[in-house]
Design a protein that fits this description.
This protein has 237 residues and is mainly alpha-helical. It folds into 2 domains: 178 residues, no CATH class; 58 residues, no CATH class. 59% of the residues lie in helices and 8% in strands. The protein is built from 8 helices and 4 strands. The strands form 2 sheets. A two-stranded antiparallel ribbon has the order 1-2. A two-stranded antiparallel sheet has the order 3-4. A hairpin with a 3-residue loop joins strand 3 and strand 4. The longest helix is centred in the C-terminal third of the chain and has 32 residues.
């Protein structure tokens, strides 16, 4: 039922706060250049801010936006004044090139996650008050929000993979050195096209089945007891 789904979604959306935090600690320890790119942090000589929204000016090695002063320092070191290694500490050839892309995709993932947390908490509060199913606009949002975790997963993957460049194995093996000598560019392109076609078909099938289920609703009209007693009991729920 929707109530069970809401309870599960609330628990797991909240759990992402802790999972994400632990993941950030691992990235800070083992891939400091990626962490710096995720937050557009260049100057490692001062505390690192945590940006809520912003833009990375790669020409001037600066990041502009709305930020929590020392927020990244606190999340990674437990101290708002702690220093966090910045991108300026790495050679240009040893750090990600598309910093703004990494920054934007990462923050889009975080924004979606926070939206889903707020959405499920608000819906849970309405459920507790007994007014959840009277908010049709909210139910419409839930119907379309099933796509948001997919989007968050995809943009998060973008930020992770682009953010670790130029390394395949951080600090040991560069992407340029990991290219296969046996697989041609045409073969790689063909496999990418094939995977894209397969996933597009699966996505269309997913949307079709989801839409069919939504239109069908949670009840089977053919098996509903339409007797006055049953209707009276249903109205009391």
């Amino acid at each position: 039922s929707f109530k069970i789904a809401l309870a599960v979604a609330t628990v797991f959306s909240l759990s992402q706060l802790f999972v994400g935090h632990k993941s950030a600690e691992v990235v800070a320890e083992y891939q400091p250049a990626k962490l710096a790119a995720l937050e557009g942090h260049y100057d490692g000589s001062k505390p690192a801010d945590l940006y809520l929204i912003g833009y990375v000016d790669q020409k001037n090695n600066t990041t502009k936006g709305i930020a929590i002063p020392g927020g990244l320092s606190f999340l990674t070191k437990g101290d708002f004044n702690a220093q966090v290694t910045g991108l300026n500490s790495f050679k240009p050839t040893d750090r990600p090139g598309a910093v703004n892309f990494v920054f934007q995709t990462y923050h889009l993932m975080v924004a979606i996650g926070m939206f889903l947390i707020a959405l499920t908490l608000y819906a849970s509060w309405l459920w507790w008050r007994g007014t959840l199913f009277s908010k049709k606009w909210l139910l419409y949002i839930f119907a379309f929000s099933v796509l948001l975790p997919q989007i968050a997963n995809q943009v998060g993957w973008y930020s992770a993979e682009v953010g670790r460049q130029p390394w395949v194995v951080y600090g040991l093996l560069r992407t340029s050195h990991a290219l296969s000598q046996a697989v041609t560019a045409e073969q790689v392109l063909f496999s990418l096209i094939l995977f894209t076609v397969v996933y597009v078909i699966l996505f269309i099938l997913f949307i079709y089945l989801l839409n069919k289920k939504i239109k069908h609703g949670p009840f089977d009209n053919h098996n509903i007891d339409h007797s006055p007693r049953h209707i009276e009991m249903a109205d009391s729920l």
